[in-house]
Structures are given as structure tokens and as C-alpha cells.
Write a structure and sequence with these properties.
The chain is mainly alpha-helical. The chain contains 5 helices and 3 strands. It has 2 domains: 168 residues; 51 residues.
Length: 228
């Protein structure tokens, strides 16, 4: 496998990993309570639009986090489908790559904000619980950040290889075009020369028959053969 192909497959693999990570982001705990019998809650738990820890006047917070989780899940599913399509295609789609990379970053940021808000709201509403609260919503941001950096390190290598191949292909196309033009020119020259020889034979026959003089024949000969 050439360096160019390896770089392209690596780039596609990174994009696919980002799409998958967008889905796995929902597995990380938005809130953890370091006490017995207090379950943690993640993005998948929020798909019910409810929380064991948020109720009453703050129930809208659970609803908002549920909406965010739905959006993250929808994007992740679409991104995974597009990344599979990108793998099947011979030529990768820059638009798909950019969309998945940008979307994965957005998912990580949004999930981090959810975790921070969830912890802040729960810490302010439940007295004595604040010191036991924690969140790992920042972990997806770190993982996705690593993949994004890797993507932008690999992307210039693939771009340079593609540009080089394009220049080679353009150069080969120009050479082929020049060869075709030269072939047409040679063919036309050969056709003209053949016609001149044929006409010269006709004038020679006329000379032998006495229809034209030697001087007239010589003049036509110089004309046909382009003799000055």
C-alpha cells in the first residue's frame, strides 16, 4: 500500500472514529454522586426527558438536556451512516469529512456544557450534596480533541498527494494532446505530398503526350514540390 492510500484510509478511519465517538459520548456520566445508592446519569438516561435528581421548578432543565441528548444521538447516527458511505466510496467527500469533524466537536462541547450545568443546578438545589457531585462529561471533549488534531495532521498529507497526482495527470493529458496534434499534422503533410506526386505524374503524362512543353512541366513541378 502506497503512502497516499495509507493516508487516505487513515483519514477515513479518523472520521469514522469521530462519528462513533459522537455516539459513545452519551455513555459518559453527566452527573455522578459519590454516595451509596445514588445512580449516575448519562446522555442515554436523559433521553427520557426526566432525571431522578431534577424535579419541581427545575424540571425544565431535564427536558432541555433530553432535547440536547436527542440532537446528539440523531447527529451520531447520521454521522456513522455517512462515514460508512465515505468508506465505500472510492473518492472521499470533503464535505462529509468536514461535517462529521465539525459535528463531533459540537457534540463534545454541548455535552460538556450539559454536565457543567447539571452539576451546578443539582449542587444549588440539593443541600449538602454539592461536595459529592462530579462529572466526566469532559472526557469526550478530550478524546474527540485528540482525533480532531490527528485529522488535521493527516489532511495536509492527503491533500498534497492528491494535488501531486492531479498535476501528473494534467501533465500526461497535455503530452497526449500534443502527440495527437503532431500526428494530425504529419497525416496532413503526407496527404498533401501524396496529392502533389499524383498531380506531378499527371503532368508528366501530358508532357509525354506532347500536350504541354518541357518548360511548362518544369514550372508545374516546382510549384507542386514547392521548389523555389
Amino acid at each position: 500500500m502506497t503512502k497516499e492510500k495509507l493516508s487516505k484510509w487513515l483519514k477515513k478511519g479518523i472520521v469514522a472514529a469521530l462519528a462513533l465517538m459522537s455516539l459513545l459520548t452519551l455513555c459518559f456520566s453527566l452527573i455522578k454522586v459519590d454516595l451509596p445508592y445514588y445512580p449516575s446519569e448519562n446522555g442515554f438516561d436523559m433521553l427520557s426527558f426526566e432525571s431522578d435528581y431534577i424535579s419541581g421548578d427545575y424540571k425544565w432543565g431535564a427536558t432541555m438536556m433530553g432535547v440536547c441528548s436527542v440532537l446528539e444521538l440523531v447527529f451520531a447516527c447520521i454521522a456513522i451512516c455517512l462515514s460508512i458511505f465515505n468508506f465505500v466510496k472510492t473518492k472521499e467527500s470533503k464535505a462529509i469529512n468536514t461535517g462529521i469533524v465539525g459535528g463531533a466537536i459540537a457534540v463534545a462541547v454541548l455535552y460538556l456544557v450539559e454536565g457543567i450545568v447539571f452539576k451546578a443546578v443539582l449542587g444549588s438545589t440539593v443541600s449538602g450534596l454539592k461536595e459529592y457531585l462530579s462529572t466526566v462529561a469532559f472526557v469526550p471533549m478530550i478524546i474527540i480533541g485528540v482525533f480532531v488534531v490527528a485529522y488535521f495532521l493527516v489532511a495536509p498529507i492527503v491533500g498534497a498527494s492528491s494535488l501531486g497526482n492531479e498535476n501528473v495527470e494534467n501533465g500526461e493529458a497535455i503530452v497526449v494532446k500534443k502527440e495527437k496534434v503532431s500526428s494530425v499534422v504529419r497525416s496532413n503533410q503526407q496527404t498533401v505530398e501524396a496529392q502533389s506526386i499524383e498531380n506531378l505524374k499527371k503532368y508528366k503524362d501530358l508532357l509525354d503526350m506532347g500536350v504541354i512543353t518541357q518548360e511548362e512541366f518544369e514550372a508545374k513541378k516546382k510549384e507542386l514540390l514547392n521548389i523555389k
